[in-house]
Amino acid sequence: MFSIYVVLGLTASLDLKVEQMDVKITFLHNELEKEIYMKQLEGFEAKGKENYVCRLRKSLYDLKQALRQ
Question: Is-above-0.85 flag for pTM?
Answer without folding.
Answer: no
